[in-house]
Amino acid sequence: MPDNAPNRGDDDDAVSSDDGYSEEEDLLIIGLAVKTLESQGNKKRLHFPTVFDRREIVNPGGSAAAEEFGQKLLTGHERRFVEELRVTKVQFYQLADWISVNTSMKGSSRQSLHLKLMIFLYVIGQGCTQRAAAHHFGVSQSSVSRIMATGLEAFADIHRTFVVQPEPTEVCHEPITKPKCQYFFGCIGAVDGTHIAAWVPEEGQRKWYNRKSLITQNVLCAVRLDGTFSYVLAGCEGSVNDASLLRHARSKSLKLYADRFYVGDAGFGACTGLLVPYIGIRYHLNDWKVSLEGPQNKEELYNLRHSRLRIIVELTFGRVKRKFRIMRSSPPEYDIYKQILIVYACTGLWNFLKSLEEKPALNKAQEEYLQSMTAWARDNLPSDPEVLRDEIAIDQWEEHLAYIEEMRQYNNAILQRKHEKHLGDEEWKAARHFRLER
């Protein structure tokens, strides 16, 4: 065997790579490279952490800073307080006292009742998202969610306490103090339906579309003539019409009396305790604004004054929407049950705030007239709504004709006196000119 012939045993003992490095050297180089990359990655993680504490981002000062922000808001300018929370400071303290005594909404070691109430009022007043309220007050979004859940239940208790239906003996003062309403004595308010924007999952949206192709909930409201709610039924689908809405409300808890009545739209239909306008006769106030002619018969006069009474529902709900902006939108953060509670919370808070206002008192003559008319209405108001409507229309029209005749005679007398005065002045001027010439 030649001396330079390859030895197979030598090949098994030592294996070299093509570039001159052995396998062990290759493994060593790879290991060093991995260690170097790991050390560089650790340095980067030290300078740029990938995990953040959300509470430190929202409010680095914690719950103490949130409480301090709330105290600054309470001790700050009244105008800013009202613009953000939609109530005055006096109203806020009275509301907080009532809630602490009558509801389960309480303060905790981390958040006081005042801070929770401010967050709740801010959300419903501004109509903002829970995320925006969390950043504004410096709390976590989960805290705002819990506050809204407990707050809606607490304000539902306010609704049950302050939104109360009239008793059969109740009489509104407006027909006494407003001459054009005197023939509607026995009226305890107005009834109408209003649509509130709703958010519903896609699979259940069909029945929530109203006639304008918007997703809404149809809310039935009964409003006293002083602008306070006496009954609210929320949660009906937007596709429900007025007649079905009224039937559903009567099957639930709406009370209608034979010797007292609400005024309502013609879509509800005539029934005991509800006066509706004449169908086919101009009714809405916008129709009267564009017309240059006044009422031409008793039906038109009745519809005009009926519309002026019923408009109180639209006015009141419009004021509620302007005050509590959450009523204008349909935030997807709340399911349909909580959206219903939002309607009850806002209407209950509206009545609570109205109860803090001073109401004008009747004088002695008005109180005596109120007592006599109450006794008269108890014995003489017909229970048939159509008969009552015709009686009111006839009495109003007779008074209207008498008033027109009286005004015609008064205007003729004024014109006659002006004419006589004008003649007298001309005669005096002529006599004076004759004397000067002589």
From TrEMBL:
<keyword id="KW-0539">Nucleus</keyword>
<feature type="domain" description="DDE Tnp4">
    <location>
        <begin position="191"/>
        <end position="351"/>
    </location>
</feature>
<dbReference type="InterPro" id="IPR027806">
    <property type="entry name" value="HARBI1_dom"/>
</dbReference>
<dbReference type="Pfam" id="PF26138">
    <property type="entry name" value="DUF8040"/>
</dbReference>
<dbReference type="GO" id="GO:0046872">
    <property type="term" value="F:metal ion binding"/>
</dbReference>
<comment type="similarity">
    <text>Belongs to the HARBI1 family.</text>
</comment>
<keyword id="KW-0479">Metal-binding</keyword>
<feature type="domain" description="DUF8040">
    <location>
        <begin position="67"/>
        <end position="155"/>
    </location>
</feature>
<keyword id="KW-0540">Nuclease</keyword>
<dbReference type="GO" id="GO:0005634">
    <property type="term" value="C:nucleus"/>
</dbReference>
<dbReference type="GO" id="GO:0004518">
    <property type="term" value="F:nuclease activity"/>
</dbReference>
<dbReference type="Pfam" id="PF13359">
    <property type="entry name" value="DDE_Tnp_4"/>
</dbReference>
<dbReference type="InterPro" id="IPR045249">
    <property type="entry name" value="HARBI1-like"/>
</dbReference>
<keyword id="KW-0378">Hydrolase</keyword>
<protein>
    <submittedName>
        <fullName>Uncharacterized protein</fullName>
    </submittedName>
</protein>
<dbReference type="GO" id="GO:0016787">
    <property type="term" value="F:hydrolase activity"/>
</dbReference>
<dbReference type="InterPro" id="IPR058353">
    <property type="entry name" value="DUF8040"/>
</dbReference>
